[in-house]
């Protein structure tokens, strides 16, 4: 690792008289088959920020405690699949989270509802989900914002959202642009989602709202978006997301403050590697 004094001296040379700062990226580095890659070293990485190569100061597996909010569709769109496929898949996800994780369960039907407090009790999670009878429409967009705000209050951990939803009638009052902008401003490490399309009734506008919201949130945080044609595949999709949450890297790099926008690319000097990278978080030296 570079000496911290030398690291920041080099960045100051790039930035004139502005003070350097240290930022961190959450990144998934996988093979072409989406298998996590281990043993990535600092000298294999280059962070490109707004077209400028930045100095990578550290790279390590992200083993910080994970605070997770899981959003589960409980609308009529999942009436036939909720208990049979979705609930077991969500419970399986919770059992596969990294050690030290805590989770909160939210449901999106009728209104945003937090059905469990932050914790790790699988019996309580099972009880909370199984007592719900799916019905009515969904308020997914509202629930994303509410769950994100609740996560923002949990300091000292990496924070993530996992969304499990089908297409169906959506009754949220927020529009998708508002939801995207608010959620991206909450400092979440990663957002991942499973979107089930089993032919349930949903108009074109609602489909566009869900697609664009989840594409932007997952893409800009380096998460996964799994599109399913059947709820039978939910468990496999959530297992992939759980593995992703447990094998991400935390990459530190030196940069300059007060940039209005930060377009980030992460280059890895290995053939056939895929990279998904989130938004940088700041940590002052």
How much of the sequence lies in strands comes to 25-35%
Gyration radius (Cα, Å) is: 20 Å
Low-pLDDT residue spans: none
CATH architecture name of the largest domain: 3-Layer(aba) Sandwich
> Which term fits the overall shape?
globular
**What is the number of strand segments?**
13
Mean pLDDT: 88
Structure classification:
alpha/beta
Order of helices and strands: HEEEEHEEHHEHEHEHEEEE
Which CATH class of the largest domain applies here? Alpha Beta
Task: Give the helix tally.
Answer: 7
Into which percent range does the helicity of residues fall?
25-40%
- How many domain modules? 2
Structure description:
- With 285 residues, the chain is of the alpha/beta class.
- It has 2 domains: 4-60 and 248-283, no CATH class; 66-246, von Willebrand factor, type A domain (Rossmann fold).
- It has 7 helices and 13 strands.
- Strands 1, 2, 3, 10, 11, 12 and 13 form a 7-stranded antiparallel sheet that branches.
- Helix 6 links the parallel strand 8 and strand 9 (225-228).
- Helix 2 (82-95) runs antiparallel to helix 3 (122-130).
- It is globular.
- The two termini are 15 Å apart.
Question: Which descriptors apply to this entry?
Answer:
single chain; about 280 residues; alpha/beta; Rossmann fold; 2 domains; 6-stranded mixed beta sheet; 7 helices; 13 strands; globular
Which SSEs are present, and which pair or pack?
Layout: H1 4-15, E1 21-30, E2 45-49, E3 52-61, E4 66-72, H2 82-95, E5 102-107, E6 113-114, H3 122-130, H4 140-152, E7 158-166, H5 176-184, E8 190-196, H6 204-221, E9 225-228, H7 234-246, E10 249-255, E11 264-268, E12 274-277, E13 281-283
Parallel strand pairs: 4-5, 4-7, 7-8, 8-9
Antiparallel strand pairs: 1-10, 1-12, 1-13, 2-3, 2-11, 3-10, 5-6
């Amino acid at each position: 690792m570079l000496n911290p004094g030398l690291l920041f001296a080099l960045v100051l040379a790039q930035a004139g008289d502005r003070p350097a700062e240290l930022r961190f990226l959450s990144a998934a580095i996988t093979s072409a088959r989406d298998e996590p890659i281990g043993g990535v070293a600092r000298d294999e990485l280059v962070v490109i920020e707004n077209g400028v190569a930045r100095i990578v100061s550290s790279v390590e597996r992200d083993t910080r405690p994970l605070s997770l909010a899981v959003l589960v569709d409980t609308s009529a769109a999942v009436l036939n699949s909720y208990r049979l496929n979705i609930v077991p898949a969500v419970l399986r996800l919770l059992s596969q989270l990294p050690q030290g994780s805590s989770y909160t369960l939210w449901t999106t039907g009728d209104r945003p509802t937090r059905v469990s407090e932050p914790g790790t009790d699988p019996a309580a999670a099972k009880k909370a989900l199984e007592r719900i009878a799916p019905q009515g429409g969904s308020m997914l967009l509202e629930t994303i914002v509410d769950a994100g705000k609740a996560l923002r209050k949990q300091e000292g951990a990496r924070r993530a959202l996992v969304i499990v939803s089908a297409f169906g009638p959506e009754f949220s009052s927020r529009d998708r642009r508002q939801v995207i902008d608010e959620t991206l401003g909450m400092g979440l490490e990663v957002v991942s989602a499973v979107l089930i399309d089993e032919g349930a009734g949903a108009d074109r506008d609602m489909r566009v709202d869900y697609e664009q919201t989840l594409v932007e949130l997952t893409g800009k945080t380096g998460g996964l978006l799994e599109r399913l044609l059947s709820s039978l595949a939910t468990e496999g999709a959530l297992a992939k997301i759980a593995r992703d949450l447990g094998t991400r890297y935390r990459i530190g790099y030196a940069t300059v403050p007060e940039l209005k926008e930060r377009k980030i690319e992460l280059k890895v000097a290995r053939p056939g590697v895929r990279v998904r990278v989130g938004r940088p978080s700041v940590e002052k030296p």
